Amino acid sequence: MKKNNLENITEKAIREDPYCYTLTEMAAVMGEDEAKAFFYSLYNEKPKAKYQTVKIKEVFNGSDTRKYAFELSDGYCIETVCIRRKTGTTVCVSTMVGCPVGCIFCASGKNGFIRNLTASEIVQQVTLLKEKVNRIVFMGMGEPLFNYDSLIKSIHILRDRNGLNFPTDGINISTVGPVAQLRKLREEHLKIQLTLSLHATDQTTRNMVMPHMRGNDINEVVEAVLSYSERHNRKITVAYLLIPGVNDGPANVRQLAKWFRNKNVLINVLQYNETDCNKIKRPNKQQLVAFKLKLEAAGLEVKLRESRGNKIKAACGQLVSKYNKVDKADTKSQGRISSDCRNNIGTGNSSTKSADDVKPSSHKPFVKPKKERTPKKKK
Description:
Blueprint: H1 3-7, H2 11-16, H3 23-30, H4 32-44, E1 54-61, E2 65-72, E3 77-85, E4 88-92, E5 96-98, E6 113-116, H5 119-127, E7 135-138, H6 148-159, E8 171-175, H7 179-186, E9 193-197, H8 203-209, H9 218-232, E10 236-241, H10 250-260, E11 265-270, H11 285-297, E12 301-304, H12 339-347
C-alpha cells in the first residue's frame, strides 16, 4: 500500500465501512494494538449491524444448497450460494452486480453489467453467512478478474491471520481468462486455486459462447493459465460446458489433449443449467459420460461436475437477482455494451459504476459457428 493512499484514510472512514480495509491500513491510522483488537473483533465475533453495508434481503433453501440475496447500500442486489458437501461447506461469492462478459449460457449478464463490488461487499458475503465455510470460490455473479483490485484486496483481508485466517488452499478464482489480468495474477504472492472457464477449443466457437471476450486469443488464454500453474505449482481446473454438436467432436478432444495432456490440469465437464436467456441443448448423462471417456482415452484427467441448486436457481449460470430487473424503456439498447464497460474489460479497473453507465447485453439463441473457408489457390 502506497504511503499517500494510507494518508487519505481516516478513522471515521474505517469505522463507517471497516470490512473495506486491511489490517495494515487500519494500523496506519489507529495504531497497531487498537487496529488488531478491532480487526479481530470484526472477524471473530458476531457481526454488528452498524458496520455492515450489506444486508440479507432473502434466503432460499434447497436440499444441500442455500442461496442468499444480499442488498447493497445503493439498493442493488447480488446472490451468494452455500453448498453443503461431505468435506464441508463451500460459498460461491459474487464480485459484480451483473456481468459484462455475456456468456450465452449464463443468466448473470441478463441485465448487463451494473457495477463492480467493493472489497467490503465481497468480504461481507462471507462474514454474514449463517454457515461456517471451509472453501471460498469466486464463481458467483460477475467476472472476478475484471474487478481485480477489489478481488485481490478481499482475498488479503480474508486470509489475514489476525482475522478469519482463511487458508489459501481453500480459495478458488473462476475466470473466463482475460490475458492481461491472468499475467498480473501470476505475479501475485497468493498461490490460490484457479479455474478457467474455457468451453471451446477454437476462437470462433469461443467468440460465440463468450461474445465480449473476443479480444483475448484462446491460445494466449491457455498459455497464461498454464504459466500460472507452473509458477505456483497449482493444479488448474478447466471448466468445459458440453454443448452437443458444437464442442464435443473429435477435433475438440484432440485440441484439449494437445493443450493439457501431461499438464497439471483437471478437466471439469459441465452440464448446462437451464436459464430463460437462450436455447442451448442440455446434454444427457450418456453424452457427458461418452465425452469424458474420449478425453480420458486421450490421456486427460477428467471429472463430471455434479450440478447443485437447480431447484432454487442457485446452480452455475443461474445467479441473477430478480431485484435488479431493467426497465422496459431500456430494452432498445440491448446488444450493446457501454464504453465504460469496455474500458473495464480492457483494464480490469476496480472502480464501481452506476447502472446509468451500462447497457444490458442481449442473449440470442446459440447457432453453431460456421468454419471459415480458405480460398482455393488458382493453378
